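Hey all, sorry for the wall of text incoming. These are the four entities for the joint prediction.
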Amino acid sequence: MARPRTPILSRELIRHTTLRLVDEHGLDALSMRKIATELDVRAPSLYNHYANKDELLDDIAATIAENVDVSGFAGDDWQDALRTWAHSYRDALAEHPNMVPFLASGPSNRPVALVRADAVHGGLTRAGWPPRTATMIGASIKYIVVGSAITSFAGGFIDDIDTYNERYPHLSQAHRLREYAAEIDQDSFELVLETFLSGLTLQYAALDTR
Amino acid sequence: MARPRTPILSRELIRHTTLRLVDEHGLDALSMRKIATELDVRAPSLYNHYANKDELLDDIAATIAENVDVSGFAGDDWQDALRTWAHSYRDALAEHPNMVPFLASGPSNRPVALVRADAVHGGLTRAGWPPRTATMIGASIKYIVVGSAITSFAGGFIDDIDTYNERYPHLSQAHRLREYAAEIDQDSFELVLETFLSGLTLQYAALDTR
DNA sequence: AACGGTAACCTGACACTGTAAGGTTGTCCA
DNA sequence: TGGACAACCTTACAGTGTCAGGTTACCGTT
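and here's what came out:
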């Protein structure tokens, strides 16, 4: 075959197919040839649309990032804006757990910009936080979300199973254990997020009376 | 060559060499043949000491984990024990930033046991925290440490450079920027950790009067 | 209406990866 | 003295990301 009358591939199609493969079989099982096979095409053809594998994965990461909701920072409730941001951020990662290791494995120009640093920083400074503190608060939330996502979704609790078995012997079925781990993860995320937010509120109050 | 009179390789030697290579050139640049070359040996010989590459990396992860200090949980100051744990945990990861993505990218039986869940859980319950809450607190600290490590050490701030440039134009030299990012990371870690700990203290007080 | 450039597919190939199979030899214990 | 085992070796295989170069469809210009 040479050039087809109507194009077979597009960045969008490649992205969707790749993300589906990653969701189904994991990052390690992904290869350019498997993506191509899935699309009834040879691997090098993909390079007409993406310069290399990383650029493809970066693009997927960017589309995931688009689902993160920073709209709250336009309003004036900075606490709730942070809460909404953190939750939607975590949800976005939870939707594609197999992508999380990639997202976190920098070191290049990856959408650590999931952060949407500008919106967050702007909202916080408008609320009265000093610029530097605003940056630090944004980073803190990012730590909580990314840390939670990576240790939870990447199968983190698997080797803690023995611990859980001793501690909660009635949870002997692996199936229930997994459920339980997910529940603990969710609650832990809630705990650290809310505790942090209420601590910030205290510091915010101290700001005014300074 | 056949069997040498005195063994050339050992798990320890392989581990050290590999960790050095990872520190110097990163995880992506690592291959069994490069490790072997560094040791003046052929790659398959490594398999006499490690079943596969992952087992080798797991072993390295375990030695890194040994530097995490959980001794504080033997005492009765749970707050300070958590603080010490978190700091030494983060320091251990900071010492080998290129290993962080691997450590976090489980899904297998990786030393997410960096957690030292038992010591932490034991110390907190002895201090009076309910078992389930103790588990959640341990998980929370882990989120903060791992999240901080991965977004900082894996070059997380690199693509935020533009943001920093606009915001702090006098930091125009990339060199200073990098320093500044590290400083922000350190301070953010401190902020989220201390804010979380002081929030916990409030909840702890509420426990007693319940 | 013919022509050139570019886009989008192809085949083939390269260097490199992890690791399995099996050969050879030194060391140690029965 | 002999056999088991350990620790190196060479060879080889299937799979990886990606480059080079070939072919053809389309689109804009002359």
